[in-house]
Design goal:
Elements: H1 2-15, H2 24-28, H3 32-41, H4 56-70, E1 75-82, H5 87-95, E2 125-132, H6 134-139, E3 147-155, H7 168-181, E4 190-192, H8 199-213, E5 221-223, H9 226-229, H10 236-250, E6 252-253, E7 276-277, E8 282-289, E9 293-300
Parallel strand pairs: 4-5, 4-8
Antiparallel strand pairs: 1-2, 3-9, 6-7, 8-9
């Protein structure tokens, strides 16, 4: 990934082209992640590498769902990963003014929907889920955490890094996901929001939720686990899908920590500070990426 490029470019400048690794290109290209996994496990079905910035994991999971429904395969390993905490990564995001500068209190820097938020905290991580056709999973007695029932995606067509103020693209993705799931907004118990702790993004997503959910927006439980993990970029959606699955399994809404002084424009139930016990039958997972990519997944409790 990015570190490979940084390391090998340093070698190129300091030692010349003959010292650059023969593995530079294979280690740099994004699709090698899925390629190596297929080689490791002998998986010969559809092998895709989706690159939609911070929406990547949700798109990977959603496209797996589509291909299973279309009959192209019966099981996928789907998710995403990111490792951008290196000088060029930090410098690049810093130059965009995307990162929090609360460096004296790093544990309190990621504060979605708080009026004192000043950018996201970059994280590193990966998440992968098994997306499997139901009868196959039942036949092998798999532990089924939840049922994936909806997937919506859209484009903002607005700006390279900023969402439209009304969150229109995000709203469209949520509406499509719920439409595919054949579920009304009244059925949704929990939203794992994209909310990265940026000034524009948190407000736009709040507006999008209000657009889609109407009066229901005030009573649905919402949280941003990025307040605890930081922003895992391409890995975020899969980790947050796991959070949705565990919320359904355990009946617990994960909290949004550091939400001390809510922004006046962010006035929904964001599960501030502490987790909350609640029966969760349906959860919605939002992921939005630079370039205007929006991807929403809907999962529900599996009942045999």
């Amino acid at each position: 990934g990015l570190k490979t490029l940084e390391d090998q470019y340093t070698i190129l400048l300091s030692k010349g082209p003959k010292r650059v690794s023969a593995f530079t290109i294979p280690m740099l290209i994004s699709n090698m992640a899925s390629g190596l996994i297929s080689m490791e496990f002998g998986m010969r079905g559809p092998n895709m590498c989706i690159v939609t910035a911070c929406a990547t994991s949700n798109n990977a999971i959603g496209e797996s769902w589509r291909m299973i429904k279309f009959g192209d395969a019966d099981v996928f390993l789907a998710g995403g990963s990111e490792a951008a905490i290196i000088p060029i990564g930090l410098a690049g995001f810093g130059a965009m003014k995307a990162l929090s500068t609360r460096n004296d209190e790093p544990e309190r820097a990621s504060r979605p929907w708080d009026r004192d938020r000043d950018g996201f905290v970059i994280g590193e991580g990966a998440g992968v889920v098994v997306v499997e056709e139901l009868e196959r999973a039942k036949k092998r007695n798999a532990k089924i955490y939840c049922e994936l029932v909806g997937y919506g995606l859209s484009a903002d067509a607005h700006h390279m890094t900023a969402p439209p103020h009304d969150g229109g693209g995000a709203a469209k993705a949520m509406e499509l996901a719920l439409e595919h799931a054949k579920l009304s907004v009244d059925r949704v118990d929990y939203i794992n929001a994209h909310a990265t702790s940026t000034g524009l993004g948190d407000v736009a997503e709040t507006r999008a939720i209000k657009t889609v959910f109407g009066d229901r927006a005030k009573s649905v439980s919402i949280s941003s686990t990025k307040s605890m993990t930081g922003h895992l970029l391409g890995g975020a959606g899969a980790v947050e899908m796991a959070a949705c699955a565990l919320a359904i399994r355990d009946g617990v809404i994960p909290p949004t920590i550091n939400l001390d002084n809510p922004d006046e424009e962010c006035d929904l139930d964001f599960t501030a500070h502490t987790a909350r016990e609640k029966k969760v039958s349906v959860a919605l997972n939002n992921s939005f990426g630079f370039g205007g990519h929006n991807a929403t997944l809907v999962v529900k409790e599996f009942t045999s």
